[in-house]
Amino acid sequence: MGTSDKRKQSLYFPEDMLKEIQQEAARQDRSLSWIVQKSWRLSRKEIMKFPGVNEVEGDDGEDDVRGQTE
Questions:
Q1: What is the predicted pLDDT for the residue at 58?
Q2: pLDDT band at 7 (very low <50, low <70, confident <90, very high)
Q3: Is residue 65's pLDDT more than 70?
Q4: DSSP conformation class of 52
Q5: Any idea what the Cα angle at residue 62 is, between residues 60 and 68, rounded to 5°?
Q6: Which candidate, 4, 24, 8, places its Cα nearest to that of 16?
Q7: Between 40 and 57, the higher pLDDT residue
Q8: Extended strands (E) in the chain
Q9: Which of 12, 16, 56, 15 is nearest to 36 (CA)?
Q10: Using N-to-C axis directions, what is the helix angle for 15-28 and 32-47, rounded to 10°?
Q11: Measuring CA to CA, how many Å separate 24 from each of 16, 54, 57, 65?
Q12: What does pTM read for this prediction?
């Protein structure tokens, strides 16, 4: 593994998600940082399959509902 860059970064999670991460960190006797880093490493290939904001075909990025009928 390469050198480790230990810059600090603030991340914000919904309260219920943060509680779950904290509980899992306690269960595994690991840090929150370790849990989040491991989660990213395990899921990043799947996440990278999601289209980017400007990559959705036919989507101009606007959430405008004018002119739509139900």
A1: 62
A2: confident
A3: no
A4: P
A5: 100
A6: 24
A7: 40
A8: none
A9: 12
A10: 110
A11: 13, 35, 38, 41
A12: 0.66
Where would I find the H helices in 1-70? Answer: 15-28, 32-47
Alpha carbon of residue 30 to chain centroid: 19
Separation of alpha carbons 56 and 27, rounded Å: 39
Q: How far apart are CA 29 and CA 4, in angstroms?
A: 21
**Confidence at residue 5, expressed as pLDDT on a 0 to 100 scale:** 77
Which distant-in-sequence residues (6+ apart) come within 8 Å of 2 by Cβ?
none
User: What's the burial of 27, exposed, middle or buried (CB within 10 Å: 0-12/13-18/19+)?
Assistant: exposed
| Tokens coding 43 | 């899921």
b/e map 6-22, b = 16+ CB within 10 Å: eeeeeeeeeeeeeeeee
